[in-house]
Task: inverse folding
């Protein structure tokens, strides 16, 4: 599958059923030693004319991606236990 085929897919968190957004301008994070993909990094949504909420970027470890379907991507992002 090409990275461009992921664009426009809705991202759903299996852990709590939350909608994380639509995959748009994602970046890939590579391991420089092995060349393998480690994560997808979704840019944060920025405020437009100071309206709405600003969101932080979301890093989705490659191992957290469970299914890539026609219209959506299912991921399992659990909260960090050290909070």
Result:
């Amino acid at each position: 599958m090409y990275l461009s085929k992921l664009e426009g897919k809705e991202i759903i968190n299996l852990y709590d059923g939350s909608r994380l957004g639509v995959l748009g301008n994602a970046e890939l994070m590579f391991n420089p030693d092995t060349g393998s993909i480690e994560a997808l990094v979704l840019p944060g949504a920025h405020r437009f004319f100071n309206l709405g909420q600003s969101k932080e970027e979301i890093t989705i470890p490659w191992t957290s991606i469970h299914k890539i379907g026609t219209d959506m991507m299912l991921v399992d992002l659990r909260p960090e236990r050290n909070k």
